[in-house]
Amino acid sequence: MKKLIGLGVVLIGALVSAFYFLDAQSDKFPGVMVENSDVFDRVIVIPDETAPQVQTYLIFPHGEMHNPYAVGMAHYVEHLAYANMKDDSQQPLPAHSNAWTNPHTTGYWMAGPAENFPATLRRLITVSKPMQVSAEYALSERDIIQREYERRNSENYLAPFFNDMSRILHNDGPLSRSVIGQPDDIAMYRLDDTMALHARSHQLGQATLLVYGNISHAAVQSEMAALDRSKPMAAAPPRAPLDLGPIVPLFERKTENLDHQAQELMVFQQLVATTPCANFVECAAILSLTKNSVDTTEPGGIAGPLRFDNFLARSFDFYMYYAAPDRILVQFLAWPDVDVSVAELDQAFVAVWNDVTLSGIPVDTIESKRQHLLTDIDSILPKDRAGAEFSHVLELLSQNQPIFDLNTWRANLQKVSAQQVNSRLASLHNNGRIVIRNLTHNPQN
Amino acid sequence: MIANFGRIFLLIGIGIAISACQKEANREVVSAQTPDGHSFYFMPIDEEGVTDITFKLAWPTDWIYQSDRNPMVPSVASEAIVSGGTSDLAPQNVMQLFNDKNANAFLYAGVDHVVGELSLPREHIDQVVPVVGAMLANPQFDDKWVGRIKQGLQARLEQSQTQSQLAMWDAMRFYILGNQPIARALSQFQADAIDQITTDELTDWHNSVIVQDGVIAVVTGAISQKDAGRILDQLLSQLPNGQPVSRPTLNTNFEPTTIYLHVPDAEKTTLGFVGALPSVLDGNDMTDLLALQVLGDPVNGPLQEAIRTNLRATYGFQTEFADFNLDTRILFVFGEVEPDNLEQARDAVTQVYGKFVSDPDLSTLPELRKNLSDGVSNNVEYVDIAARTILGQALAELDVTVIPKLGQAIAQITAEDVKSRLVSSFPKPDQLIVIVAGPDPDALAGACVITNTQQAVDCR
Fold first, then answer.
1. pTM metric for this prediction
2. ipTM (interface pTM)
3. Could B158 and A263 be called an inter-chain contact, meaning their C-beta atoms sit closer than 8 Å?
């Protein structure tokens, strides 16, 4: 049943597939100040008088997909760069501080009272300075990452299958790289490679500074002006677009044997090439409404034939998003119902998916789903609006996607036509690379 | 899942807020009665833009304390009631209705209570409430639908058995609770019991638990007290009368020991510590939570400093508490450790913990307290989170009127309060149970080595 979705979930769910161009005109971007900077690529300020503190993020547009060294090394660099912040001062870091690495970006953040902002800004900048940590500490950090790998990935029966699917789907390209790597990779990280990757990926001139909370735009500007420029940072070289390779059509279906205690599962992944949009917000709105119109119990959606009219899938998850500006990824995961084999579920889904992409979705269903998406935005209370804009911008930045505000998003959702939704579905029909895994206890069936 | 989590966790997360009623005191929690005489707690929210209402209902139960009852029945029945449709509406039609009306309902079977929640915009009351009333009064235990739920629950439990860390907590529960029925009910390793559930048992559970009497109810949001009472009567009036339920006494064993759960295929070694804390009924859980946040602070906390920064043996240690039931609360500390450093990690955690509960460094308390206070103040503004928090307070038999100002109350907790609590109420280091799960049965000298979770009872 549908939950009254929380703010963050609304935004993440609605925008996970978004790819947009930045419109940096402040007058078109109310409440979200975007400007150029001689230190950072850009500075974004979202003031919110009601917020109890200031959250400051420094986001580099380099993630694991940009790492040419051992798999997972971008994450290792993040650990060491975070430690760099500690070595610069005897003061403890705020308890609310952390960092992330994902395929697209590496980010660092701190939160605290507004009066700490100057110190916070200077601390965050140290992640781009040459590593201060000792070689002994840096090498032993590999052991820490082994423990992190254990926490996140060990005893995860699905991980090997998903790694394999990702490798095939993305043809061993940059998008197939694991963010945390494998234990053998982690053990082999070399300091010289690490330093080289750090210098390449942590250029302030390529980073975005995002500031949200009870701080004024003027206060942020004042601190920006006060930054010490006596030792100018090296100018960031222009970054060439990453070559993700062509999408060569493929259809691969495999049945794999599962441990008897693991849940049987069917996984369908499809990667389809698309022309990069001239106006990404429009394309993203089309894709979001398409996804929601497919993933529904309403007429034309897949929930009826797979879960309610027929007892085929006990439950399922359906995703559709831009894996990159020129490629759309569709994923369907389903757990088979009582006395239904994974192979039967696979056949049923493929038939339903072929039908949906060929026949399209009824207009009434698309209208209904559009209203749901608009209601999700309209139900944000005025006092929560700045926080919602912040969550929304942060999500886009963390995926290295161009940013836009919620009004723009809403306006584009309103504009999407049923024909655009069904054209998008038609473009997915029997197209691109399709990888299916039937994970079962009885592979002979 | 470790156990039945306490009310703290009800505060975490974000809901959607909503509005408007009459001239009742905004955001003031009062005790009220429905026209039919049911008691409930009521907090109106009359604010611009707020249109949501949340109803929370808690039915007392002792089902899983009884040895002659299948412990998995409450979970299956609860899910079937809210997902299985009504005599007039198929499951997908109910889901469609709720989607269309932006409504949400769930039913959760806990140890001492079964908790239900309905949240919806006020303009959809007339369409949604009758359906929820029908689901509660006349659930559809359709064989095929129930079979799907049973299969899903069984598959999830079986899969959880592949996780050595979850197995470790299962062993810990058996050690503390012994062979009492509740240990079996909380275990991840009782998937076979699901197969045996009959429709008669589901009906029996429904008739004996989902009743009119003894319900603890809360209503928050954009509604008048009069309308709230009328709707509660609408939800409850079709239910049968019930028998009084008294909370059984739980026998626990916190005798310190060291247990090693040998999992040959384990891909990691997890080190855990468990001790008894005063129950939720004690009313100091915010102070306890702050103490555990200082201890487990992943940036500046003493465990992080000792085990990660200095010993280089872990990614991090987590510190939390959880409730087996309303009377029994545990604290637990755990993390994945470098297998070769297991003994050193155990000794270091013990030393750090011992220092912390006798002479703590609370220099990070102000920042952590502000974060918690701000977070709680913000979250209780949301209609649904307010209702959950009020219910948690009511179930703990504490003063519900403090909830709107709970964040401010947290801000008043002093370092002296925390230290006093640590010294007086937290277990001493030599009172902790040490439990490990990993692939090497010889890794910890002197440990009671077991190979399945129920054997932990024999370590007593």
1. 0.90
2. 0.88
3. yes
